[in-house]
Structures are given as C-alpha cells and as structure tokens.
Amino acid sequence: MATTAAAAPHATRRDFLLIATGATGAVGAAFAAWPFVAALSPDAETIAAGAPVDVDLGPIAAGQIVKVFWRGKIIFVRHRTDAEIKAAEDVNLASLPDPQPDSARVKAGHANFLVVYGNCTHLGCVPNQDTERFKGWFCPCHGSIFDTSGRVRGGPAPINLPVPPYTFVSDTKVRIGEETKTAAKAA
C-alpha cells in the first residue's frame, strides 16, 4: 500500500509538468507565428495606395492637364476648353477604332473635366500632350494618338484611355477611386 501512495504524488507532479510545458510551448508557438500571420496583411502604404484621392480642380487652368497617382497608376485630369469639348463632341463615331461618345467619358454637367488613366492602351507607355492633330495625347513609343476625350485616333493602341471610377464631391473637387451609388446610377 505504501508503494501506491508514493506513486500517486509523482504521477500528479508529472501531469502538472506536462501540462505546464505544453501550455508554455503553445504560447511560445503563438508568439513565434504572430509575425508570419501579420506579414500576410497589407502594410499601411499598400492600404493608402488603394484609398481614394481627392483632386482640387480650382487651380487647374482651362487647357491644363494635371497628373496624379492612384493605386500606382498615373491619372490625367484635364480641364478642357470649350473648343476642345466641341471638337470632341463633333467627332464622327464611325471614324473611331473604339467608338464612344464624349458624353460617356465625362460626368454629366462636368464636361469641362476629363479624368482618364494616363497609360497608353498599346503597351502602357505614358503619352505626352499632343499639340498637333487632335490636341489630346501622343505616345512617342509607338505613335498612338488620343484626342481631347482620350479616344484612340491613330496608331497601334486598340482601345481608348480607360476612365477610372470617380465622382465630383463638389464643383471644384473630384474624388478618384470612389464612385457614389447615385453617380453610378446616373452614368
């Protein structure tokens, strides 16, 4: 009987040590795994890169193009003159490789501002301002030409400059990267 009573305290102590060691190992493993789990979430710069960008339109003069970055892509914000708007609206759509009316590329009531991605749709080069034929953009890499509505008018570019999601917060401010539900329904 003495052997049974003496074995019981050792077994209890052994059980306690096993449980304590296992718990310490589990906590240690959780602390060791935490940096790996945290590395899977995006960093602050990545989150900020996807956030909407507000552009103040007030200082942009008629005929001027402003370049901003959103999600690592260049965006052209162009304050179009009345002559540029008229030229864009008067184009024969049948003559365009990617026919799209000017009214589909701007927001209603804000035809004087055009917001488009600033990369050529051929190979992604950044086109320069075109002062010659169509007064829009000219891609010096392969010769693509875009008009004041961002529509392809010549060269190897297959489609127009895309229009990013955006909305007018006020008459002098546009938010790129966020399109309100009412603005999306109106478009």
Give a short synopsis of this structure.
The protein has helices spanning 2-39, 44-49, 82-89, 181-186; strands spanning 53-56, 65-70, 73-79, 113-117, 128-129, 137-138, 145-146, 152-154, 166-170, 173-176. It is α+β, with helices and mostly antiparallel strands and 187 residues long.
What Rg, in angstroms, do the CA atoms define?
30 Å
Element order: H for helix, E for strand = HHEEEHEEEEEEEH
Q: Average pLDDT value?
A: 85
Annotated CATH topology of the largest domain: Rieske Iron-sulfur Protein
Multimerization status: single chain
Describe the 3D structure.
The model is unreliable at 182-187 (pLDDT under 50). The longest helix has 38 residues, at 2-39. The protein is 31% helix and 21% strand. It has two domains: 1-41; 48-186, 3-layer Sandwich (Rieske Iron-sulfur Protein). It contains four helices and ten strands. With 187 residues, it is of the alpha+beta class.
